[in-house]
Amino acid sequence: MPCDREEGFVDLERDGHRWIYLVPMRVRFAETDANRHVSQASYVLYFEDARTRFLEAMARRLGDESGNTFSWWGQGSSTVIVNQFVEYVRPAFYGQWLLVLVRPERVGRSSLDLAYLIVPCDRDQEVLTRGTTRVVRIDAASGHSLPWPPAFAPAVAALMGREP
């Protein structure tokens, strides 16, 4: 049965935290192992997909009045992961619909700490996986850290319910 949740900004309390972005996804056969459960490496890809979608949604939110949006990769910048943590709680299985929840934990000059929670779509109080990543924005040519656009940190802080 397909998941009836749509991707986008949300305000959900799960696992003792407030989550602000949701991405539904279905487990594909290629993401599983011989036991039909999700391979541990696939969770990192789920985090990557949710993180990219969250950053793209933030870019759309930060667009100017003419509808132009900030391009994360089109202005000589990129993002890199400097650390990542995954906690496997319960297995997910082939064909299962999952919700990947995202929340920012900290925003710095050029870094962003994100947390993730993966739950089944039909039992969204049941935790399958938790994780975190630290993303750093870099200049693509030099590899040096690059500050977020001026509006980014205040916008993320507002989503976190904090002052920048």
Automatic annotation (TrEMBL):
Q: Which GO terms describe its molecular function?
A: fatty acyl-CoA hydrolase activity
Enumerate the transmembrane spans: none
InterPro entries for this protein: 4-hydroxybenzoyl-CoA_TE, HotDog_dom_sf
- Highest taxon in the source lineage: Bacteria
A Pfam family matched in the record: 4HBT_2
Report the protein name in the record. Thioesterase
- Annotated organism of origin: Candidatus Hydrogenisulfobacillus filiaventi
